[in-house]
Design goal:
The N and C termini lie far apart (46 Å). This protein has a single domain, classed as ABC transporter involved in vitamin B12 uptake, BtuC. Helices cover 82% and strands 0% of the residues. α1 (2-28) runs antiparallel to α8 (165-187), α1 (2-28) packs across α9 and α6 (124-153) runs antiparallel to α8 (165-187). It has eleven helices and no strands. The chain is globular and about 55 Å long. It is found in: Cell inner membrane; Cell membrane. One of its GO terms (cellular component) is ATP-binding cassette (ABC) transporter complex.
Amino acid sequence: MIDFLFNALVAGLALALVAGPLGSFVVWRRMAYFGDTLSHAALLGVALGLALNIAPMLAVTVGCVLIAVILVTLQRRQPLASDTLLGILAHSTLSLGLVVLSFMRDVRVDLMSYLFGDLLAVSSTDLAWIVGGSVLVLVMLALLWRPLLAMTVHEELARVEGLPVAAIRLTLMLLIAVVIAVAMKIVGVLLITSLLIIPAAAAQRHARTPEQMALGASVIGMIAVCAGLALSWYQDTPAGPSIVVSAGAIFLLSFALPRRA
C-alpha cells in the first residue's frame, strides 16, 4: 500500500516539477494544440509497442519524438496552415492507434488507463522512466533557458543575433514529446496537455518575470498532484482526472486573488 502511494506521489511530483517551466513555453508560444497532437499520437505508440513487444513507455517516447520531427518537416514543406496539419495528425494517429489495438485480440489492453492514466499502478520501472525523463528535460531546459526565452520574445531578433532558431524550436518540441510520453501513465493521453497548460496559466496571472512564472507553475502543479491524490484516495476517484480537476480549481482560485502589479 505504502509502495504504490510513494511511487504515485514521486512520479506526479517529478512530472509537475518539469511541466511548470515547459508548460510556460507552451503557453507563451501558444503550442497547446501541438501538445494535444503529440498526446493523441501517444496512443499509436502504445499500440505499436504492444504489437512489436516493446516496452510501451519506450515506444511512446520514440513515437512522440518521430511525430514531432514529422510535424516540423511538414510545416516547412507543405502550404497548409499549422493548425490544419496538427488537426490531421492528431486525429489520424489517435484513430490509427485504436484500429491497431482492435486487431490485437490476443492482448488484453486496459484502454481507459492509457486514455485517462493509472497513476496508482506506477511500477518501479515506470517510476524510473518518469523520473529519468523529467530530469533529462529539466536539465535541457536549464541549459537552453536563455535561448528559448530569446526565441519566444522575438524570433527574428534571435535569428539576427546568431541563435540557431530552427534547432532550438525543434529541441523544444522534442522536450514536449518526452514529457508527454512519460506523463501518459499519470494523467493519460487525453489529459496530458492540461497538466502543461493549467498550472502555467494559473501562475502567469501573478508572476512578474518568466522565472517566477516557471517556478510558480511547478509549485501549482505539485499542489495539484498532492490534492488530486488525496481526492483519489479518500473519495475513490480516478487519480489522473482528479489531478487535472485540482489544477483547474487552483486556476479558478487564482482569479479570486488580487493580480500583482
